[in-house]
User: Fold these one by one.
Assistant:
Number 1:
Amino acid sequence: MNQPPVVLSGVSRRYGDGPTATLALDDVTTSCPAGSLTAVMGPSGSGKSTLLHVAAGLDRVDAGSVTLAGVDLSGLDETSLTRVRREHASFVFQAYNLMPALTVRQNVSLPLLLAGREIDRNQVSEVLDRVGLAALAGRRPAELSGGQQQRVAIARAVLTRPAVVFADEPTGALDTQTAAAVLELLRDQVRTLGQTVLMVTHDPVAATYADRLLYLVDGRVAAETGRADAATIASTIARLSSLSARTGSLR
Ligand SMILES: Nc1ncnc2c1ncn2[C@@H]1O[C@H](COP(=O)(O)OP(=O)(O)OP(=O)(O)O)[C@@H](O)[C@H]1O
């Protein structure tokens, strides 16, 4: 596939109507090349989560188009959207969204089960090994640390080798060391399997793991850069934040 796995063209997303409406995304055009890790950054309310959600087909756009793994999401009904997401995307959120009654192995296998696909025990073992959880496969989420739970969520997200992994603040609840391990893991997926990761983060250190940085201000793309160090990222955010006019209502 030559087309980048995530393409947004002129995307706008408005919440609400009239004077209280918010233009969460305002004519956003960007794309994530295959085998890249993109960090989406910007001040609070700048539209980062909305961008992630529309790119993943979890939320609809009011204008423009979104293409995920070569499929134009415009006009797809809910069933088709679910199918596209299931085939091409997976998700890692700050809240790990693990099933408390299931073991680590069962949690990781869940997407296959839901997709009605056969569960290859070796494949599951390999992924558990890769994220360093092989010895904990029989435990339940409550018996794991936060970092271990996030690694289960990542193992679950990458098991089926989806084209795109969408991650919303994946390290937000983790200490520095555990966050680094989780980010290494995501970067490893990109390098070894050519997967594409789109990650929202507030953390300039987390963003140093990205190949590409996308800065949003007031729902618009304010800057797009390549890899950068944490100090450069932090100063870019500070500079861009000062440009934000967002008051929570439509400008
Ligand atoms: N469901 C909704 N209904 C109304 N307004 C919304 C909704 N979701 C988001 N918004 C508004 O859209 C704008 C963008 O929100 P979004 O959550 O995408 O920003 P963000 O950059 O992810 O913020 P944060 O960093 O604080 O999580 C904000 O002004 C927000 O208040």
Number 2:
Amino acid sequence: MESILVSGGAGYIGSHTVRTLAEQGYRPIVLDSLVTGHRQSVSLDVPFYHGDIADSDLVRKIVEIEQVSAVIHFAARSLVGESVEKPDLYFEENTAKTNRFVSALLQSGVKRLIFSSTAATYGIPDEVPIPESAPTNPINPYGLSKLMIEQSFAWLEKAYGLKWIALRYFNAAGAALDGSLGEDHIPETHLIPLVLKTALGQREAISVFGTDYSTPDGTCLRDYIHVLDLANAHILALEGLATGVGSGVYNVGTGSGYSVKEVIETARFVTGRPIPVLESPRRPGDPDKLVAKVEKIQTLLGWTPEHSSIEQILQSAWAWHLKHPNGYL
Ligand SMILES: NC(=O)c1ccc[n+]([C@@H]2O[C@H](COP(=O)([O-])OP(=O)(O)OC[C@H]3O[C@@H](n4cnc5c(N)ncnc54)[C@H](O)[C@@H]3O)[C@@H](O)[C@H]2O)c1
Ligand SMILES: O=c1ccn([C@@H]2O[C@H](COP(=O)(O)OP(=O)(O)O[C@H]3O[C@H](CO)[C@H](O)[C@H](O)[C@H]3O)[C@@H](O)[C@H]2O)c(=O)[nH]1
């Protein structure tokens, strides 16, 4: 059984990936500082190290004790607004700490790595759907912190033979189909959990940020990808690297966009509850459309989304919210 170290394995996407790895016959090992993650989101059967990715001694120890052969690296800060207020925090926590983490891994002989990147590396795209070859002009420190990591990998590959895949996720959403794992960010800023908290009556209304975008209904279009499909993309990426797929960046999305209004309308249908809307000003830094071009991951890694219709995303997220109205508390 191959042992895979998952940094940030107690976070939203990490916890779903840890479970999927175990289901597919891998042995996941989690390293997480719990700065934003939840211990309860990881099964007690999974080896769990409470620590920081920048603790090189700990990383080397884990690799040796657990016989780690590859790494999936989720650990990061990911609040766009916070990154604008505290760019130094993002360059330290994401870029600098990842550099230390990858150095320790390479020193320990681990050369296969899958990295959580983001559509925020593109900034405001000229072309939608966005191909991986599009220019990268991030418009916030969060996106830049991730782009710098991607770029560093090419040099680490040349110097030390690192094999890497950076998955540029579009909008991660949804939950385990039985609602047993889900999204519990504090503070929550993402549209879908906020819409469902409104359906639960925990919020009075959902603010729609901007109704004058150049989209069919005036609200922003996003490419929502189910967290289980994302989890699977990581495993295919690991297997791809092991069987000779080259290093590089891959978009992970569905290729279809839904507007904020369409998401809210579908959530009304799925939950059967009223969801009051408050039309609000634009949120700074939101591009009107972010939709992935997905041929590369489909062709080279054989990945196709299976749970990512907007109905399936909302149904699974609703199951999670009904079972865990206060998150993992
Ligand atoms: N959620 C999205 O829509 C989305 C979109 C694009 C990219 N991403 C990226 O995916 C990854 C996971 O996102 P998420 O939504 O699951 O976030 P999350 O905050 O739920 O998970 C991040 C996990 O990393 C841990 N962590 C953070 N810094 C750490 C450190 N220095 N050492 C050890 N552990 C640390 C946290 O405790 C948490 O468990 C992040 O890298 C994020 O930037 C997320
Ligand atoms: O209360 C809300 C919250 C969001 N939105 C809108 O809903 C859409 C989706 O917003 P999210 O905050 O859910 O997601 P983002 O598209 O802003 O962010 C995602 O995409 C980014 C890339 O731009 C990063 O990768 C980030 O990590 C990831 O969560 C946006 O148009 C946003 O303006 C609202 O109208 N009301």
